[in-house]
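Re: that chain you flagged

S.,

Sorry for the slow reply, it's been a week of failed gels. I finally had a moment to sit down with the sequence you sent. For the record, here it is as I used it:
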Amino acid sequence: MHHRPATTESAPVRWLLIGLALLALSLFLLLPLLAVFVEAFRRGADVFFAALHTESALSAVRLTLIAAAISVPLNTVFGLAAAWTITKHRFRGRALLLSLIDLPFAVSPVIAGLVWVLLFGAKGWFGPWLAAHDIKIIFDLPGIILATVFVTFPFVARELIPLMEAQGSDQELAAVTLGANGWQMFWRVTLPNIKWGLLYGVLLCNARAMGEFGAVSVVSGHIRGKTNTLPLHIEVLYNEYQFSAAFACATLLGLLALVTLGLKTAVEQITHQRASRHH
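Prediction finished late last night. Pasting the structure tokens below so you have them in one place:
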């Protein structure tokens, strides 16, 4: 069957638009990413690997991995629960819940960090009680995790909600009719249908968690070797004019972006192939 083109522009106009898009991508995405790798190796591989093996760099990488390892599973569980609640039930306050899920997209990460300081800082609402019980949140790992959880809060939920709404509830209703309980329905019906969307959301959530700067910068205190995540460590190196070391550490985040992009593309292709087979 012959498919008519969706647009009526002439070939020169289409090529012009494609060329402009490629030019914009090259200038604003590819060229800066290439510059990071070029600057990282400008003084040779020895300087590059030495920058990655310093105690402060290893501590920053370790802290970044810990923050992501805790915040991503938490937001995965929340995203699944929120998507299930919103798509499978109709209740008063549903629109408000959807708006609250999107709140981290609308609030500056720096403001989010300041909110945690207001709540748990030494002079915050709960600061005196925390100090009396020798519990430290701000300028320590718990504060970094809280900030990371907040900024990555919507990613999994926002990937799953439209997917689960599009799929409807027919298969779950059929499973219930055949005698399945709630857990059986989730593991055998719902999860297989959303697994690629879930993986996509987890990838985006992880990339944001490991690259977050603004909120973490406010709550960390910039204590080298203790509360500096990888993005904060890069800023410190750059401010100290250690440009080669800063760009060397930045390549780790660049590689994370490339790996995330590759996995994202693979998930999209698999999802598209599955959708084509169903149609």
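What I noticed first: The first helix runs from residue 11 to 40.

Talk soon,
D.
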